[in-house]
Every structure is written in C-alpha cells, then in structure tokens.
Amino acid sequence: MDKEDLKRMAQNPKYISGIYNYCDRWCERCPFTARCMNFAMGEEFFPNQEEHDLNNAAFWDQMHEMFRATLGLIQEMAEEAGLDLDALEVDDEVMEQEQRLQEDARNHPLARAAEAYTEQAIAWYEGAREQGLFQEKEDTLNRTARLGLADARPQEEADAIIDAVEIIHWYQYQIHVKILRALHGDMEERPEILKDMPRDADGSAKVSLIGIDRSIGAWRALWTHFPDQEDAILPILVHLERLRRSVETAFPDARAFFRPGFDGMPPEGEF
After folding, report:
1. 96 within some domain
2. Which of 60, 79, 145, 186 is deepest in the core (most CB within 10 A)?
3. Number of domains present in the structure of the chain
4. In angstroms, rounded to a whole number, what is the distance separating the alpha carbons of residues 212 and 26?
C-alpha cells in the first residue's frame, strides 16, 4: 500500500469519518469494523496473525511500510497547502508548555484516582490467582456439569466469568489513559476559538466513562459469582463509582458528546 492507496481509502464513502477517534480500540467486539478505515488499514498492512506479533520481523517491516506511506501522504498534503515541513521548528517555550501540561494532567486528582483503580484491579486479579480462586471455580463448575443437574448452567456461568475478566482487563489501563487525554485536552483547548464546537476533551472523557460503566458491570458480575470476595470487590466498586461521578462533574458535557457511528449514523449521503 502506498500514499495513493491511502488517499483512495480515505475517499471511500463506506467508511464512517472519524469513527476511530473516540472508540475503545476493542475491534474484536466492535460492530463497525467494516465501516472503520483504521481497522481496514490494519487488515491491509497486517493480514496475517503472525504479523501482529511485536517479536516478528514482519510486524516491523509492515510498520515501516505503513509509516512510509503515511509520511508520503502528509508531505503531499503539506505541499498542496504551501507548507514546508522541513522549515518548521518547534519552539522551546512550546515544548516546555507541553511538558507542563502533561505533568499537570498526570498529577490531577482524576488521573491519580484512575491510576489507583488500575493498581486495585491488578492487585485483585493477582491475589485471586494466588488463592486459586479461578481454579477452584473451574473445578466446581466441572463437577456441576458432570452431575447434569437440570437447573444448573455451568457453561453459562463460566462464560460470564470469562467475559467479566476480559472487560476488566481491557479497560483497567485504558480508563487512566483516556482520562489523561481528556485532562490534557481540557487544559490545552481555547474556548474562544472552539466556541460552539464539540470538545475533544469531552469525547475522551466519554470513552473513559464508558470504560468505567462497563468495568462496574463486570465487577458486579464477579461479585455475583464470587460472593466470598465481597470485602475485596466492594471497595473497588466504591472507588469506580466515585471516579465516575468525578469525571461527570469535571466534564458535564461528556455524556452528550456525539461519536459518529457509535451514537448514531450520519444522514444518508454523508458517509
């Protein structure tokens, strides 16, 4: 794939413009992969499973090819706009300001609370493994399956537990990352310029809230299947609920942010 292929892909009306900007990157569970240019690019550059392996030389070869094609397209667009990319210089003051913004975002109470949740989730899972919690549950469900009780649903329970753990694992880092991005954007955005326009910070905050919502549901599911874990799971749920309310307070318009595709489809003819 070269820059011309990228241009043709970008002009393809089947792709929903910007759908990948505010998603949770969980392509395996996304109903819009056929409408996502980002997903299509990944399939184009990495068609084989082994090429998704960071330790495989093919992965880095394809990454190099993708960056080369993207850079070529950026250079062409800059030339069309009359910009000389080689002449652009990054001001030291601008760099220092960016570093300050990143540090302020990392030290914000919301970011610290999100990071604390990540540590809670990791600690619980590691503790559960050390206690043999999952192995014990698996043994119990296998015994139930062998008994063939009419009202028992061991496979359904196993699937529910696996689903809950996968959800928790997927979002345990992403919540922090999305909150950081929302905070950084909120500090950087200039209201006088972006008046009446959707705020990128709200979009990132919304994705973090979706991750919190789904994580809360997953932890509640685990509590149902592991009632003896109440003392360990309840504090995590309380922490997540407080984090959710804090994000909603800091970004009151986040829930209303419109994400193309996920929150509705554009009118006919606009995609």
Report:
1. no
2. 186
3. 2
4. 15
Burial class of residue 134 in the structure, from the number of CB atoms within 10 Å of its CB (0-12 exposed, 13-18 middle, 19+ buried)? middle
CA distance 89 to 84: 11
pLDDT mean for each 10 residues of the chain (271 residues): 70 88 92 90 69 56 62 65 65 79 93 97 95 93 82 87 96 96 86 68 96 98 95 97 98 94 64 38
Among candidate residues 193, 213, 198, 205, the one with its CA nearest the CA of residue 247: 205
In this structure, are 119 and 239 located in the same domain?
yes
Residue 93, pLDDT score: 74
> Quick one: tokens of 122?
């990791």
**Domain that residue 12 falls in:** 3-87
Read off the pTM. Answer: 0.80
Q: How many CB atoms lie within 10 A of CB 180?
A: 20
CA dihedral 135, 139, 141, 146 (to 10 degrees): 160
| Residue type for position 143 | R
Note whether residue 261 is domain-resident.
Answer: no
User: Are 73 and 7 spatial neighbours (Cβ–Cβ below 8 Å)?
Assistant: yes
